[in-house]
Every structure is written in structure tokens, then in C-alpha cells.
Design brief:
There is one protein chain. This protein folds into two domains: about 270 residues, Rossmann fold; about 50 residues, 2-Layer Sandwich (Alpha-Beta Plaits), CATH 3.30.70.20. Strand 5 and strand 6 form a beta hairpin. The chain contains twelve helices and 15 strands. Helix 1 packs across helix 2 and helix 7 runs antiparallel to helix 10. The protein is of the alpha/beta class. Strands 1-15-14-7-2-3-4 form a seven-stranded mixed β-sheet, with helices on both faces. A two-stranded antiparallel sheet has the order 5-6. It has a two-stranded antiparallel ribbon with strand order 8-9.
């Protein structure tokens, strides 16, 4: 039987109050509320946005969903996990501080905000799955200890996976730093010395100090590289290269298997709400404002991450009149949906 996906048109011009009401309607349509009990721990997984980013889901848009959950249980919290790469979100102290800067506070939302994998991303546990690429998934403990999970996702393009949405929020976003490392471990960037201007920016951003100077160019030491892709993001000269097709396929396959592991652990007590509002070429990990690649479309919801992501992709590409995701990054984004 095909999974149901619910949709409501929505745009920033609706205003925060109307967007909150529309998000609430989608949440109620999904039907997860009936599975929440008085003593349930409910994790609301969201991306708080990198410093300087403006595309993330705004806290005002989710207040009515929070109220619906708080009407049943007080054990609800907003959460995200720490990043693999060096940023304001790679440890809990700075991560929480940044979340506050972006308006995610207990005072404004009425629920605690915690980082799911602890102070430096080591608070996790493993789920045995024995899949083709992943034998056990390293998932943030606050996700595993919850009874219910609500995935709130801003749909965007993505430099490694073509697009980032519910599957990525579940598989990559719920993984600890060790889990993220495992998913990126097959990514092997390299530097084209003819394009490198040896500016040194990538040296400062590499979390594993894998980039050194070699002659008049940066050079990536493969044995030390963790495959996070930070060097590709910060390189302004286009010198950092990937084997896009093979590297992306493996990342997507691992990410999907990680997503499956969380679904298996929570026995389907998960809802997925995708915001197709300010859809951008890159994800909210980018520390800058980005241009929209399509007009605002709406909010989607489902119990099925594959169904809601497929519907989201279809709507985005239909609105643009072409495969706008592949136009952004020429790789096969459909792997994560298969």
C-alpha cells in the first residue's frame, strides 16, 4: 500500500502565524498525536542553522505543533546533533548558544533545547542492523532514548547528496559525530594544484588537519581525511574536487541505512514534516544567506520519509520546470530514495 503524503501550500508571505497554523494542520493530519502518551519522551529533530545562515525553519513556525504535543506530555524537547566539521555546531555549548541566537529558546518555545549526542558528540549508542554498508549505526543517545520522534526538515539542495530532506535529517542528523564520520568515510576529496591559489582558508576549516601545503598548493593527506566535505564548501577557487558519482552514491547508501536504523528502533513512531520554503542550492550548514532556487511551495507531512522526500523532489522540480537539483550538483540524488 502506498504511503500517504499530506500537503498544504505555504509561503513566507503568509506570515509566521499562518505558517504555524499550516504546520499544525499537517502534523495533525499525519496522526502521530494519537501515539503520544502522558509519559512519552518526544524529540523534535530540527536544524538550528549555521551561523550566518537564514534558510532554517523559523521557531515561530513550529509553536503550534509544540502546543499540540505539550497538551499530552510535558516531556518534549527540541534537538539536533553536533556536526562532524568544525563550526559553532560541533560542540554543545556553542551549538546551544547559536540556537538561542536564532530564536530557539525555552523562554520563547516553552520546551528545553538539548544536543542529542552530548558535549562533543560522543554520547551515542549502536543499533545492530547488518545491512549492506552498515552493520551497526551509531545514533545520538537522546534520539534512542525517546519514545516519539518528530522530524522537522527544511528541504534544500546538497553538495554531497543532491538534496537534503527527511532521510538526511533522520540518517545523518540523528547520527553522532562517529556515525557521521562513518557515513562520510568513502568520500575522498583532492586538490587540483593548477586551480589552487594557496589562500590557506581550507587549512583553517579542516577538522582533522588533513590539509597541508605542498609546493604552491594545498594538498589533502588521504590517510587523515574524514570526508566531511568542508574543504569543498570553503574553497573559493574551485580547486577541491570529488569523484562525484561514486562518492555520492556511497554516502547516500550509508545515510539511508542509518535512517532505516532509527525507523527500526522507534518502531515507526516518527512523523516527517518537510518545509519547502526558501529552497536553496545548499543546505543550512552554509554560513551565509543563499538565493532561492524556486518559489516557496508549501509544507508536506508523512509517516514515510521516502514518500515525503519523493513528493518534495517532484514538487520542487515541477515548480522549476527542470531537474533543478541536478542543475545545482550533477549527481544522482535518487540513490537515497531507492
Amino acid at each position: 500500500m502506498k504511503s500517504q503524503v499530506f500537503f498544504i501550500p505555504a509561503a513566507r508571505e503568509d506570515g509566521n502565524e499562518v505558517l504555524a497554523e499550516k504546520a499544525e494542520k499537517i502534523f495533525l493530519k499525519i496522526g502521530l498525536r494519537s501515539q503520544i502518551e502522558k509519559k512519552s519522551f518526544v524529540a523534535m529533530k530540527i536544524h538550528f542553522g549555521e551561523k550566518g545562515n537564514t534558510g532554517f525553519i523559523k521557531p515561530q513556525w513550529i509553536v503550534k505543533i509544540i502546543s499540540q504535543i505539550k497538551g499530552i506530555t510535558s516531556r518534549v524537547f527540541l534537538t539536533d546533533s553536533n556536526t562532524l566539521y568544525v563550526s559553532k555546531r560541533s560542540n554543545s555549548l556553542e551549538h546551544l548558544s547559536l540556537a538561542r541566537e536564532h530564536g530557539f529558546t525555552q523562554e520563547t518555545l516553552g520546551v528545553p533545547i538539548i544536543i542529542a549526542d552530548g558535549l562533543i558528540g560522543r554520547d551515542d549508542d549502536e543499533i545492530q542492523v547488518n545491512l549492506s554498508r552498515i552493520k551497526s549505526a551509531k545514533i545520538a543517545s537522546a534520539i534512542l532514548d525517546s519514545d516519539i520522534l518528530v522530524c522537522l526538515t527544511h528541504f534544500t539542495g546538497h553538495i554531497l547528496t543532491g538534496f537534503g530532506s527527511a532521510i538526511k535529517n533522520l540518517g545523518m542528523g540523528c547520527a553522532s559525530r562517529a556515525g557521521k564520520l562513518e557515513q562520510h568515510s568513502d568520500v575522498h576529496p583532492w586538490v587540483n594544484p593548477k586551480l589552487c591559489d594557496n589562500c590557506g582558508v581550507c587549512f583553517n576549516y579542516c577538522p582533522s588537519q588533513a590539509i597541508v601545503e605542498k609546493g604552491d598548493s594545498a594538498f589533502i593527506v588521504e590517510e587523515k581525511c574524514i570526508g566531511c566535505g568542508e574543504c569543498l564548501v570553503v574553497c573559493n577557487s574551485g580547486a577541491v574536487k570529488f569523484n562525484w558519482d561514486s562518492d555520492s552514491v556511497r554516502v547516500q547508501e550509508k545515510m539511508s541505512e542509518y535512517a532505516f536504523s532509527v525507523l527500526k528502533h522507534l518502531k515507526g513512531k516518527i512523523s516527517f514534516i518537510n518545509f519547502l520554503i526558501k529552497v536553496t542550492k545548499d543546505c543550512d550548514c552554509m554560513s551565509n544567506g543563499q538565493q532561492d532556487i524556486v518559489e516557496d511551495i508549501g509544507i508536506l507531512g508523512s509517516h514515510d520519509p521516502v514518500a515525503v522526500d519523493q513528493a518534495s523532489v517532484d514538487l520542487v522540480n515541477k515548480r522549476s520546470g527542470k531537474d533543478i537539483l541536478r542543475a545545482g550538483y550533477d549527481l544522482d540524488w535518487s540513490v537515497q530514495l531507492s
